[in-house]
From TrEMBL:
Keywords in alphabetical order: Signal
SMART domains registered for this protein in UniProt: PLDc
Domain PLD phosphodiesterase: 161-188
Name the record gives this protein: PLD phosphodiesterase domain-containing protein
Amino acid sequence: MASQLVFLLFLFNLCFAPFPLTSASQPIDECKAWLVQSIPTNMTDLTPVPGVLSTADVFRWLAGNTTRELDITAQYWEFIALPNDNRSGDYGYTDAQLGSFGANEGLQVYQSLQSAADRNVSIRILQNSGFYPDYDTESASLAAGRPNVQNVTLLLSNWYGSGIVHAKVWISDSKDIYIGSANNDWKSLTQVKELGIYLVNCSSVATKVEVYFNNLWKLAFLNSSLYTKTVWDQQWQIKRQVPCWSHFVPFQERCRSPLPHYVETPHVAGYPTLLDPNMFQLAINTPGYNNTSSQNNSCYLSFAPPEMLFTKYQADEQGWVDTIKSVGAGATVRINTMDWLGQSQYLSPTVFWSSLSSAISEVVFSKHATVKVIAAYWAYYLNGTDEYLKSLLYSNVLCSSSKYNNCAGKVEIKYYEVPGYNKTGPALSNGKSTGNIYPDFTRVNHAKYVVSDVRAHIATSNLIWDYFYTTAGVSFGTDNPSIISQLQEVFDADWNSPYAIPIVPL
């Protein structure tokens, strides 16, 4: 116990002691990075990876250590459990049960946000409309009576016909930042498996993501009916609604972008793929894993949807594809996702989307790479997932389909089943026990990342067309060897656990 306390004090001092200042009293950009996880309770057979922080701690630290400004993007809010609301997936669980689920972690995060607001920290909340039954009650309560807290809802469906704010980002004082899969929900802290990255004193990253945040913020105040067009999208062979400055609008018909920061990029099939996307150099300390900062590492950011791009930052799809293709000859690519569909989910009509599956097949053939994929199996598993995943396995058949093929690569896929995934929902219905043992929308692997032998990509988007073309998402990537190695360890711990079940080919 004493050793644990010493380690926690060490981490706290390392993260939050005052940073040295230059002669001009400006912070020195000495970037520190930690991987961040949420691991559901009662997963005793999962081997822990040392040096990885918990999401709840990081959210509390970000709120508690902000002195000036805190920007947050959120799909929805439910840090406070709702066991007494019969419309909620938490309904009917006792205080003792909620305590064992770790619901208090969410309450503590929310209280940290309240304390930050009471310290007169300027807080900007950019969110989707939230979910039934409480929608944006918590964020509205945080803003009520506090002029320093702004609470804005952005409906991307007004701009694209579908789409949401799905990015999960916290930016503190333009220097500390969380990018990852965790929602502003107590269940995302203790009942859903999440992964993100926490960058401290890293204004080189935080200020760039702030530009993206400001673009989305501006969008929320614009009249979408004045800035959208319905176009024939040649890439996807459908009519769809897009912002009028979109790359999918013919050049002569485009409007001038009203966003604070924007870049004109010639239209190409799909995204405006960049041959030389912006890479910035950072010396990153990794205190949780082989702490080294003797040399700079190449890092990048990628964003979705493409109409939010600025300077030479790449679209998020390109970040995923380029990371898959970065794999060395005979090496391994590891992909972790909740959902996988080679199509759109919410668009009508449906479009076919093969970018990631094509990249996988290409490296299997050309580089003899092994590609390992973990996808979630849970109560809200998507129809069509099994067929699309098994189509990836057909690359193994094609490898040996011809005497002309010299293909030594392979694809391996496993479903991730968090214990109790099939026993989630309210505890009571019409006054009777349901037999559920966990609240609704829990017990699922929700992480989104890909890591090769030379590059790590940590994201906020599910692997479905909509998340790259109509939905707000952010990714951070790097060739930092410590981050790569630790992320591989996180993946391998899941892959080698009894919770990962191999998929049987068709």
